[in-house]
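Ticket #329: bound-state structure for S-adenosyl-L-homocysteine.
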Amino acid sequence: MPIAHFMAAANAHYYATRDPLGAAGDFVTAPEISQMFGEIIGLWLADLWDRAGRPAASYAELGPGRGTLARDALRAMARAGLAPPVHLVETSATLRAAQASIAPPPVFHDDVATLPQEGPLLVVANEFFDALPVYQLIRDAAGWRERVVACQDTLFLPVAGKPVPDAVVPEDLFDAPAGSIIESCAAAVAIVRAMTQRLVRQGGAMLIIDYGHVGPALGETLQAVRGHAPANPFDAPGEQDLTAHVDFGTLAAMARLHGGKVSGPVAQGDFLGVLGLAERASALARLHPDRGEELADAHRRLTHPAEMGALFRVLAILAPGWPDPAGFG
Ligand code: SAH
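RESOLUTION: The complex was predicted; output attached.
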């Protein structure tokens, strides 16, 4: 089967059967490191909404995990006078249960197609796109082939499959050396296309935060984590988290193609820095002197280039008539 089908089936089982976040789980995300992350995103949205003339907008989040970012963002937005209805796109019943206590009570969606059709949308996706299935192509002496997963008893292995038509290979990557791999995420492209069309028609903004690069580029980034350690992606399907780097270059191009106004991508550390994370951490530390060390540690993890500051990137897609967003220099 294509790598993408393997990844989709493995992740559907994985997310349906557990809460993977936190110290007892497999990985930790930015909103789980500190409330400051969601608060800054909430203030970013509230600032845009204010400068757009305070329209009746909806908050929408894709893949909200435990709902931590939504709770922190909604609290910060409320302080700025923004109290939107909440729409969550989430396929995992386990995680929907964790998100159900968000106030106001969320409306759940299986995919973005059923999000409200009217009024501006304020959309956030943190570490959502990296969980979507990627296809892989692999180069051999004769040309490019699709990379597929072969199965022998309980052993899964990536192998070269059928040749693909030349037209599916990005032109500037075509003459790569044998063994080269190209990834592409059709699901991410389709969601960005659909959401950009909505923003253009309805107004609003979408903030995408994830780890990735500005492609298209050569290289394999499919990876697995289990218990906070890297694992072989083809071991134990459905029992470990599979992700791939997000190609921000391709997503930004898709958004522009459909009339969206694009800012970024910029590094997460720069985005949070410009929006005042250090000042917020100092203010909280003055209020709670016993939490000084914890806040300094959170600031470091979210912004230091050796932690999440450089690998994670932030991309904003806006309705053409909306103001320029803060945080992009
Ligand atoms: N945004 C959260 C969680 C990230 S984990 C955080 O930052 O902590 C990925 C999230 O995306 C989970 O909530 C998972 O259930 C959801 N998810 C993964 N694939 C999905 C899909 N195809 N459709 C909708 N949600 C999906």
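RESOLUTION NOTES: The pocket of S-adenosyl-L-homocysteine is lined by residues 11, 15, 21, 29, 31-32, 63-65, 69, 89-92, 95, 126-128, 131 (CB under 6 Å).
TICKET STATUS: resolved
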